[in-house]
Write a structure and sequence with these properties.
Rossmann fold; 314 residues
């Protein structure tokens, strides 16, 4: 939340230069406050598990957040009861005339599938385009980040032969960026993906900023200059057991997966995971909600303007 101090207090200028949001008395006395509307497009197979992970992150704020759940289509789910989907999820047709303060699009286990072979690819592109017109700030996670970078900016992912699986150290590249507020210079993030994004291509083709990256897994956190698009290649929302469950599942299927890196204590799968990403995951979601949703969204969502894509001028 912003700090409310006198406009002319010397601390106001100092904190502003550090990208700490300072609200003057005049604005504080006149601002309108209402609940934030956030739309969650859940593409993961185990939707209830993912719902809990995301809701936990969104709840770590004093702001009131009203969440709508969205399904990509009406195909039956193998891992989520149909009665749950019918009771709690909305179709795109039910929300497409609405505006939202924020939107989160989750990852999906489609890292090795060609874009045009994804069953809901056309609908996915439609929703990405819709979000630019109807959402103040959209957070794309893992597969969704790759899909959005490709759809919006023509930046295609590179498919690796070996999967990134584990918890990896990342470096903050823009210390004073609002999304990095409170981050340590090095922080840990879970990854579970085959694809990666070329940093040079992002810098050459767009005005997007790479805010954090890993020496091992590459580009992690990318944002548009206005904060209306946030691309995250990892899974800061993961629970302690998520990577373990994936490892057990793939082992049982005879896929002979590598042991997730930097995950189990002493790298021993018989021991408990060492959780060292939870605090930064919560901080990232809190910063996003505060700086790029709450602080920037119009009080009247009908006044929302479309995103201006951050492509480089030729």
């Amino acid at each position: 939340m912003p700090i409310n101090i006198p406009d002319r207090l010397p601390a106001a200028q100092v904190l502003t230069t550090e990208n700490i949001f300072v609200m003057g008395h005049e604005r504080a006395s006149s601002q309108n406050i209402r609940p934030l509307k956030v739309l969650l497009l859940n593409l993961m197979p185990k939707k209830i598990e993912t719902e809990i992970q995301i809701m936990r992150m969104l709840s770590n704020t004093p702001l009131q957040v009203d969440v709508d759940l969205l399904r990509i289509d009406n195909r039956p789910s193998k891992n989520t009861p149909e009665e749950h989907l019918n009771a709690f999820y909305r179709t795109f047709e039910e929300v497409e005339q609405q505006n939202y303060d924020g939107m989160i699009i989750t990852g999906a286990p489609l890292g090795l599938v060609e874009w045009n072979d994804v069953v809901f690819w056309q609908r996915m592109k439609t929703i990405i385009d819709w979000a630019n017109k109807h959402v103040t700030s959209t957070m794309y996670l893992c597969w969704a980040a790759h899909a959005a970078l490709y759809t919006l900016y023509g930046i295609d992912r590179k498919i690796r032969q070996e999967k990134y699986s584990g918890v990896y150290p990342h470096q903050v590249l823009y210390r004073n960026h609002p999304l990095m507020r409170g981050f340590d210079d090095v922080f840990w993030v879970p990854h579970s993906r085959y694809a990666e994004i070329n940093a040079d291509e992002v810098e050459e083709k767009t005005n997007l900023q790479i805010l954090a990256a890993s020496p091992q897994t590459g580009v992690h956190l990318v944002a548009s200059p206005d904060g209306r698009q946030l691309f995250i290649t990892g899974h800061p929302e993961y629970d302690p057991e998520t990577l373990h469950n994936e490892y057990v599942r793939d082992s049982a299927a005879g896929l002979n997966p590598a042991v997730p890196e930097n995950y189990y204590r002493d790298n021993d799968p018989s021991k408990e995971p060492l959780v060292r990403w939870r605090s930064h995951g919560n901080l990232l979601f809190s910063n996003w909600l505060n700086y790029f949703v709450y602080q920037t969204t119009p009080y009247d969502l009908q006044q929302l303007k479309p995103v201006a894509l951050a492509a480089k001028l030729s």
